[in-house]
Amino acid sequence: MSNEKRNNTKYWAMMVISGIALTYFTIFLPEAFWLGLPTFFGGLALAMDWV
Fold this sequence. Notes:
Blueprint: H1 9-28, H2 33-47
Helix pairs in contact: 1-2
């Protein structure tokens, strides 16, 4: 197991962008809301270094 700190900036950006898309889907296209969930929670898990 490595103790190196990795750069999580791209994962935070992915989570923020998919959060914005999720908000857009919720407002304008509610049936497509589910499409943004895997990217949002995947980005969150990677950004928080849970994986």
